[in-house]
Amino acid sequence: MTSASHLFYQTRLRRPLVDRAEGIYLYDRNGKKVIDGSSGAMVANIGHGNRHVIEAMKAQLERVSFAYRLHFENEPAEELARRAAGYMPDGMDKVFFVSGGSEAVESCLKLARQYAVAVGQGSRWKVISRFPSYHGSTLGALAVTGYAALTDPFTPMMQEMPKIVAPTAYLDRDNFSMEERGIRYADKLEEKIIEEGPESVLAFIMEPIGGASTGALVAPDSYYPRIRDICDRHSILLIHDEVMSGAGRTGKFLGGDHWNCQPDLIALSKGFGAGYSPLGAMIAPSRLVQPVLDAGGFMHGYTYAGNPLACAAGLAVLDEIERLGLVENAAVMGELLKAELVKLSERFPFIGDVRGKGLLLAAEFVVDRQTMKPLPKELNAFQRVVDIAYDKGLIIYSRRTRGGIEGDHFLVCPPMIITPEEIGEVVSILDDTLLQLA
Length: 438
Ligand code: PLP
What we know:
Elements: E1 18-22, E2 25-28, E3 33-35, H1 39-42, H2 51-63, H3 75-85, E4 94-98, H4 101-118, E5 126-131, H5 139-143, H6 148-151, E6 163-165, H7 178-196, E7 201-206, H8 223-233, E8 237-241, E9 265-268, E10 280-284, H9 286-294, H10 308-323, H11 326-347, E11 351-357, E12 360-365, H12 381-392, E13 397-400, E14 408-412, H13 420-437
Parallel strand pairs: 5-6, 5-7, 7-8, 8-9
Antiparallel strand pairs: 1-2, 2-3, 4-10, 9-10, 11-12, 12-14, 13-14
Helix pairs in contact: 2-10, 3-10, 4-9, 7-8, 11-13, 12-13
The chain binds pyridoxal-5'-phosphate.
C-alpha cells in the first residue's frame, strides 16, 4: 500500500494487504502465512473461512440481505434473539441488536437513562466506570472509557464520567489477602457513589474480565458479589461490557459467568459475529425494557440493526460454537496456553505477570520481577514485540497502559478452535520473539 492510498485509520502505520484466511491462519498478498494469535481484535473466535457460516450467509443473501426493521420483522433476528437470550443470566430475556461494541455500550447507557426517567428517577444520569478501561470510541462510550490518550482530545465535547481505579493484580504490595483486596477494590465504587451523590448515579459499567486496556485483568473473586451488593444498595444499574470477554472467549459464554454474575445490562459484540458480520447486542431484562416502551419507546436505534444477513451470520456462529464445543475448548486450550505462558515467564524475567481466563490471556512486561517496575516507555516494547512476532509468523495484540502506572502488555487470544499442536506453534514463535526482544 503506498502513501497515495485514500484510506486512513488511527496512525500512519500501514500493514500488509491481506489475501485470504483459513482456520487460525491469515495469508498476506506476498504469500506470508501468519497465525491469528489475537483473533484480530479478539473477534475471529471461531476461526476464519468457516464453511457453515459462509453457506448460511450465502443462503440468506439469496433470500433477503436487508429489510428495514420499521417495515419488516425477520426470522434470523427473531431466532438469534431467542438463542442469545438462552445464554444469558436469569431474566435477561430482551435482545437489542447493533453492529458493534461501541453501539452496544451506547445502547446500554441510553436504555439505563431512559429507564431511570421512565420510573421517576430522572436525577440519575452519572455512569461510573473504571480506570483503565475501554468501552468504545463513540462519544457516549468514550465518556465512560478510562484511557486518557483516547479521551483527552474530546473532553470539551462530552460529559466525562466519574472513574474508579480498576483492581490491579500484582502491583499492590500490601499485607491483604486477595479476598480482602477484592472487597477493598469494590468499596472504592461505594466511596465514589457517595462522593458523587447516590441520587445522581445511574449506573456502573465494567468489563468482567479486562480487555486490551488492562491486559486481561481479572479481579479477585470477592470483588464481583460485592459490586452487585453495592449497586443494589444504591439502586444503581450494573452494566457488564462483555464485548471482548463474551461469546465464549474466557471459557464460559460470558466472562461474568465465572462468578454467576447477575448484571442489569450486558453489551455483547466481537465474537458474537466472529468477524463474519458486524454484529453486537444489548441484552436487558423485561423489567427495564417494559417501562421504557410503555413510556413512549426507546429513543435509540441504528439503521443496520437486526438486519437479516448479520443475524444469519450470528446464528451460524452460535451453531458452530455449540457443534464444535468451542466454549469448552476455550477453557481447556486456555489452561494449556496459560501454563505455557507461565513457563515462558520463568525463562524471561521481564515477564512480570501472566493473567486472564480461557483464551483471553495476557503477559505484562516489567524491568524485573523483584521491583515489578514497568519497562521504560522509550524501549517501545509493546510495539516491538508485535513487529518481531509478525515477522516470525504470529499476530499478537499489545498496549501500553495500566492502572495508575504505565506499562506494556501483550495479549495472546487465538481463535477458540485452536488445537494443542497449534498452541505449540504459537508458543514456539513467542519463545523466539521474546528471545529477540530480550
Ligand atoms: N468494549 C470493549 C470491552 C471493547 O474491547 C471494545 C473494542 O475493543 C469495545 C467496547 C468497542 O467495540 P467496537 O470497536 O466494536 O465499537
